[in-house]
Structures are given as structure tokens and as C-alpha cells.
Design brief:
Elements lengths: L1 E9 L5 E10 L4 E5 L6 H8 L7 E6 L2 E2 L6 H7 L2 E4 L11 H11 L4 H14 L15 H13 L5 E5 L7 H16 L3 E6 L2 H7 L1 E7 L2 E8 L7
Parallel strand pairs: 3-8, 3-9, 6-7, 7-8
Antiparallel strand pairs: 1-2, 1-4, 4-5, 9-10
């Protein structure tokens, strides 16, 4: 679950990035967060991953009060969420397998668990056949899938995906969001940040629009994929 209560973010430059945001995302939801560049989407994401603290207000994610997290508890909290960045942030000289295994080793998972979990998430993202390839050898779409597989490695309750279709052609974009929908149907809460309104309208669901730091729309709409 994600909950924000009366959250404001004011930057030293004088910009009000978020203004009195009240938001609740329940476990198991799939939520699109949309808005123009500079609207506050990235700030919202940084709050959810505790990369940024609000100027005022409170933020709760996965049962954690983020204001009270210190030291090792921050690392423990971040293992409860999966993060997929727009620039992937993969280790280019590692293989696909090694990139996914890396986050599990950081979390002190056993070698046995790693050997089981890595093929599972790679197969889920249709990347098992590329396990031995270096990530620098992959296309942008393939790297995106590896990034999502890595984010799923620790079996997070919440998956936050930042502009996942920005470097993909339309066909691959729709297929990728379809995979994210399947991940959501398996029980993972998914928050997808995007500016692609056509794609959002096609899939439908809960849509939150941010404009100049304020939530101006928060509704659930039907999509064109409902019968598929």
C-alpha cells in the first residue's frame, strides 16, 4: 500500500513540486500516473522510494512510515519495492543472469534460491534464452525486460516503473504493458509512470493525473483491452 497525507515538496529553487497531495494506492492495484514533463511525476516516484523526503506531510509505503526509517531499515524497505528506471541502470558488462542475481546477492539470498529465482523471473519476462548474453548486446526493449526481471527478483509487493515504453516502438510498448498487467494479476501492486496517453486509454484502469504538482484527476476508466 502507498499512502500520502497532505504532502508538499518545495525545492530550494522556489519550485513547488507537489502541493497538498493526498493519495492512497491499495495492495493489488495497477495505477497509471500521468502528466506533462515537470508536472511532479518524478517527485512522486522519489517519495515512494524514499530518495526524497517531503517538505511537509507523511508518506507510508508497504507498512513503513518513511519519515522514521533510519540506517539499515532504509535498505530493508527498498527491498520490499521493485524499481524500474527509465535508463535501466543495468551493469553493461554483466550477463543478463548476473544482473538479476546481483540484487539477490546484495539481499544475502542463498545460492540455491538464486539458482531457482533468476530463471523464474527471466522466463516470466521472456528473457530466459538471453541469460548468458551481456546486457550491452541487447536491444533497448530487451534491456527493459531485464530491468523488470531484476526488479521482480526479490518478489516485491510494489513495483514502480518509470516511463517503461519511452524507448520502444508502439507494438513493443503495448506488449510490455500487457506483461505488467499479468504481473499485477499475480498479486503485485504496479505503479507505472508515463506520458503516453494513448497507451493509458487503451489499457484503462486507475489513472492519476498530476498537473503543476497537484492531483487533478483520479478515476478508473474502461480500456479497449478488456475483452482480450
Amino acid at each position: 500500500m502507498v499512502e500520502m497525507k497532505n504532502v508538499n515538496v518545495h525545492y530550494a529553487s522556489g519550485i513547488d513540486a507537489l502541493v497538498n497531495v493526498n493519495l492512497r494506492i491499495n495492495d493489488g492495484e495497477f495505477v497509471f500516473i500521468v502528466g506533462e514533463s515537470g508536472a511532479g511525476k518524478s517527485t512522486l516516484m522519489k517519495l515512494m522510494m524514499r530518495e526524497l523526503m517531503p517538505s511537509s506531510g507523511r508518506v507510508f509505503v508497504n507498512g513503513y512510515n518513511l519519515e522514521k526509517l533510519k540506517g539499515n531499515r532504509i535498505a530493508k524497505f527498498r527491498r520490499s519495492i521493485g524499481l524500474v528506471f527509465q535508463d535501466f541502470r543495468l551493469i553493461q558488462d554483466y550477463t543478463v543472469y548476473e544482473n538479476v542475481a546481483f540484487v539477490l546477492r546484495i539481499a544475502d539470498q542463498s545460492n540455491r534460491y538464486i539458482r531457482q529465482r533468476v530463471p523464474y523471473v527471466l522466463n516470466l519476462m521472456e528473457m530466459a534464452g538471453k541469460a548468458k548474453h551481456k546486457t550491452r548486446e541487447l536491444s533497448g526493449g530487451e534491456q527493459q525486460r531485464v530491468a523488470i526481471a531484476r526488479a521482480l527478483a526479490n518478489d516485491p509487493g510494489l513495483l514502480i516503473v518509470d516511463e517503461p515504453t519511452g524507448n520502444l516502438d508502439p507494438e513493443k510498448s503495448y506488449k510490455l504493458v500487457g506483461l505488467l498487467k499479468e504481473i499485477n494479476r499475480c498479486g503485485t501492486t504496479v505503479v507505472m509512470i508515463t506520458h503516453e496517453h494513448d497507451l493509458v486509454r487503451y489499457f484503462g484502469g486507475r489513472i492519476i493525473n498530476i498537473d503543476k504538482g497537484e492531483i487533478t484527476f483520479d478515476e478508473t476508466i474502461g480500456g479497449n483491452d478488456e475483452d482480450q
